[in-house]
Amino acid sequence: MPDSNIIIRGAREHNLKNFDITLPRDTLTVITGVSGSGKSSLAFDTIFAEGQRRYVESLSAYARQFLGRMEKPDVDHIEGLSPSISIDQKGVSKNPRSTVGTVTEIYDYLRLLFSRAGRPHCYNCGRPVQRQTVQQIVDSILNWEEGTRLQVLAPMITHMKGEHVQVFDTARRDGFVRMRIDGETRDLADEIKLAKTKWHNIEVVVDRIIVREEIDRGRLTESVETGLRLAGGNLIASKLGAGKQGADDDVVYSEHFACLHCDISIAELEPRNFSFNTPFGACPTCTGLGYKLEVDPDLVIQDKSLSLTDGAITPWARSGTNSPWYHSTLESLAEHFRFSMDMPVREMDPEHLSVILYGTAGKKLEVSHQTKKGRVYSWNTAFDGVIPNMERRYVDTESDSVRDDIARYMTQRACASCDGARLKPEALAVTIIGMNVMEVTGQSVENALRWAEACRTGVWPGGDGGETEDPLNNREQAIAAQILKEVEARLGFLSRVGLDYLTLNRAAATLSGGEGQRIRLATQIGSGLMGVLYVCDEPSVGLHPADNDRLIETLQNLRDVGNTVLIVEHDEAVMRAADHIVDLGPGAGQSGGNIVVEGPIEKILECEESLTGAYLSGRMSIPIPEKRRKGNGKEIVIGGGRANNLKNISVAIPLGTLTCVTGVSGSGKSTLVNEILSKKLSQHFYRSKDRPGDHDEVTGLEHVDKVINIDQSAIGRTPRSNPATYTGVFTNIRDIFASMPEAKARGYKPGRFSFNVKGGRCEACNGAGYVQIEMQFLPDVTVPCEVCLGARYNREALEIKFKTKSIAEVLDMTVSEAAELFENIPSIANKMQTLTDVGLGYVHLGQPATTLSGGEAQRIKLASELSKRSTGKTVYILDEPTTGLSFDDAAKLMIVLHRLVDAGNSIILIEHHLDLIKNADWIVDLGPLAGERGGELVAEGTPEFVASVKKSSTGQYLSDMNGIKPNAKAPGTTKPRKFKSSVNGSIADETTLPDRPTSSANGATKSRRNSRRWRRRRRGVATAS
Fold first, then answer.
1. Dihedral through CA 59, CA 63, CA 65, CA 68, nearest 10?
2. Is residue 719 within 8 Å of residue 848, measured between CB atoms?
3. Which residue spans within 845-948 are E strands per DSSP?
4. Is the per-residue pLDDT at 734 higher than 90?
5. Is the preceding peptide bond at 928 cis, omega within 30 degrees of 0?
6. What is the CA radius of gyration of the chain?
């Protein structure tokens, strides 16, 4: 039956070889194969693209104009297609305002919950802020203890200076006989004279009542109404003599959301008050980002062992010593405040350092400056400080180079106003069971689920339990019930796909591709759709083998409710759980695009031609090195790592080795390597603006000369970028063509053979090789250029030949073919050989970078590094390099990594792939679990030692691998090692520079842009020009 299958006829997209295939519906189907074999071309560019195109075409012409035109994939016919939903790894927002909470819409529900059921407090004193009706106020007073004597007071003046004669006159005229002034009840018949220079509190005594059963409710209600009318909605009921030492005990009531103690009123709460993306809720200082770009004192004074004379202030000492003008300023400061210019910064008084960095707070001093000609000028001025001076220049300058220069000394710091919480203080003072909205989002998904349950039940779940602080009342429970149900459902979906370690306030930009994909997978589970075709791109990326079971269960649940789940995947556990497998290949690029075998797992295992089957069945495997490297004896030590969930751990990474950082998802691997080590190295070598995560020190940097982070991002953003341009061989190739006798006779330079500039390129298509024809309401059609026929060059450039090949023919060659053509030219042949070694012999030199897979782009970057002259002191950081790689690709990657380490370099991997982990020389295993229950060092040592550690999840899976023999006596330890602090001031110095004075909100002096003098000077410049 056609309805029970998806039938594809004549699939030819990209490198697919015009094949037919039938995929069963309502199953979990895996498409696998080597990198570049056509998996994504079949799943995303053919099946998903056609399903989406058909859905869009079913809409009206009016609706289609907003969705854009969709191209028809290169396929003859597809039957049995359902509406398609793509869950790939490319859709994670890079917007700094986007968080896990906003992406999953959980934060939208939390905003609604806090605005409707939250309890406001005064952000100044912390007292509850409530709004009460007259009836509620009366009922509250009547609930007091029998016999309580009270005064109903209307507060007229709260903490104000003055004589306030008019207030007394108005009260007498209205018929009141008593007032309470500064806590003392006085008769208005007496003459009252107040000291105008003192603070006063004045309340009108509206009524005096004793609480009894037979009390006149009408009288009390009338008194309360009168008091509220007089004081503009505020009222004090004072229990006479009920306070400490016989003082009166005041209870404040209000018709508004207002704190009478601090004279602060709060507007009606709305969901937008809790949004950090609108002016209504965002902190005005950082506009809701939670951080500001500020000059970092540690970047201004990088080497604290230097003195001011030796150029300790880096921005003022370009050539190693201070510029004359700044030197004169510092000398004047030293003379005025009596400190030495020749003393190392680490030995200076913090007060003197504070003056140098943040200025004299408006106090003037005499500054002297001697010119080159010997003339001395003196003047009195206030010194604004190195950091405020740089911040002012950063704002005022119109020069991009000056702004870029100052930006090198700036880092992101938590906003001083909101302390990184993003919201206004009014919103942060609203709580539910004692927590504000930012404290809730600061929790992991797992803890947020406990909080939601505690809101419903009033008791914290778990063994230690206990009642919640300030539980919700019945009214609030009724309001919150439906919202909490939605919040718990979404949190539950996230937990089910293995993301219970994520915090809700984590920036979406910091999520890995696999995490972003699983978040979208969780939202799809929540939608509860049936009859849909889900196309997923490696959802297991970033998951430890211990977490795979939950993901597989989630995918099977999607299938069981009546959906077809199509997955591009290389993970063995997912393949073994699949109902149907399609193996594409046999090779990559032009050697791929065919169906090697399809069917259940048993059929794949039996197929002799299938590389996937060979690795799954054990006929082939990634070999284990015969000997583990011991390194060069040097190491990088990360001391006291506390960022995110790390528990103050210290870790040593041996240099000259292949080190693998492992652990369950969310155990702190990325925090340790990417947040602390990578950012610290980048800051040290390249003056990066990103501030490393919280830690004590990183030592051993003197053993390294550079750090390179190799990820799977594209090697170029446009089709004009290709492997030849990225690796640099295109420059050599153009030089060769320009050196040909015919080219020299015509006067052609290397630029003549570039398709990016005028001269040799085809001007009809601007060197693109194709032309896009706009078809109005139909998709744009891309056709080869009719002038150059796709060659990209004009006739004159193509007439120049090297070994009978034109420049266009060379770009159309594969790497293997180019290696033969240029075998006698070492500068090109070496790079071609390296690309072939990493398994990219099939890639065309001119293949657009946008058509390369993530694995191919990564190996091109690695090959580019391999072909450079090695210093033996480079650190390479790779975060899950096996993403998108088959077993065979991973084996080729291992060959490249071993070559890099054999050259003396160091490689740090974050990896879950057991075949790579077993190849490591040293393993750092974090855990034992995710989130708050992780962040500790479980074990470090060789794979054989880690395999012997029972509490290590990684070790348990390693012990089952072929070739790994657990050995507790192998090099390694489960105990944290103690490290000596560095004595080198430029690397790890315990000297802390003074904080910014509180006298200025941002530390910077007032910008001159708005000053009259500045505007007049700018007008003068404009007139002169």
1. -60
2. yes
3. 874-879, 906-910, 922-927, 936-941
4. yes
5. yes
6. 36
Cα–Cα distances (Å) from 699 to 305, 654, 702, in that order, read 16, 12, 8
**Burial class for 910, CB neighbours closer than 10 Å (0-12, 13-18, 19+):** buried
Going 884 to 889 to 893 to 894, the CA torsion angle's sign is positive
Contacts 24+ apart (CB under 8 A), 601-610: 601/575, 601/576, 604/575, 607/583, 610/583, 610/585, 610/586
- The mean of the pLDDT values for the chain is 85
Quote the tokens at residue 838: 């990493």
CA–CA gap between residue 922 and residue 630 (Å, rounded): 9
Q: Crossing angle of helices 350-358/324-337, nearest 10°?
A: 140
Q: Are strands 874-879 and 906-910 parallel, antiparallel or unpaired?
A: parallel
Residue 618, amino acid = G
Tell me if 463 sits within 8 A of 424, measured CB to CB. Answer: no
Burial class (CB in 10 A: 0-12, 13-18, 19+), 173: exposed
Strands (E), 191-248: 199-210, 234-239
State the Cα angle at 248 between 245 and 249, rounded to 5°: 105
The structure tokens listed for 490 are 């979404």
Kindly state the tokens that stand for 661: 């950082």
Q: Is 261:399 a contact under the CB 8 Å cutoff?
A: no
User: CA triplet 659, 662, 663: central angle to 5 degrees?
Assistant: 165
Task: Reply yes or no on whether the pLDDT at 54 is more than 90.
Answer: no
Residue 259 forms beta bridges with which residues?
A: 264
For residue 382, give every residue at least 6 positions away whose Cβ sits within 8 Å of its Cβ, in sequence order, or none. 359, 360, 362, 363, 364, 365
> How far apart, in Å, are the Cα atoms of 898 and each of 673, 795, 895, 1006?
20, 46, 5, 56
Quick check: 567 pLDDT over 80?
A: yes
**Token pair listed for 626:** 């015969």
Report the alpha-carbon distance of residue 885 to residue 891 in Å, rounded: 9
Residues 345/304, Cβ–Cβ less than 8 Å:
yes
Token look-up 């500045």 returns: 1014
Is residue 763 classed exposed, middle or buried when 0-12, 13-18 and 19+ CB atoms within 10 A define those classes? exposed
**Overall size of the chain counted in residues:** 1025
Q: CA quadruple 331, 334, 339, 345: dihedral positive or negative?
A: negative
Give the span between the Cα atoms of 481 and 473, in whole angstroms.
Answer: 12
| DSSP code per residue over 520-544 | HHHHHHHHT--S-EEEEE-TTTT--
Contact 524, 85 (CB under 8 A): yes
CA–CA separation, 626 and 619 (whole Å): 20
Where is 295: in which H helix or E strand?
strand 291-295
* 3-class secondary structure, 740: coil
The burial class, CB within 10 Å (0-12 / 13-18 / 19+), for 873 is: middle
In degrees, rounded to 5, the angle at the alpha carbon of residue 269 between the alpha carbons of residues 265 and 270 is: 145
Please state, in angstroms and as integers, the Cα–Cα distance from residue 913 to each residue in 401, 441, 876, 882, 891, following that order.
45, 31, 18, 7, 12
pLDDT value of residue 687: 67
Neighbours of 604 (CB within 10 A): 25
More confident residue, 802 or 784: 802
Q: Whole-angstrom Cα distance, residue 414 to residue 422?
A: 9
pLDDT digits (tens, 9 = 90+) for 571-612: 889 999 999 999 998 887 778 899 999 999 999 999 999 999
Residues 355, 336: Cα–Cα separation, whole Å = 11
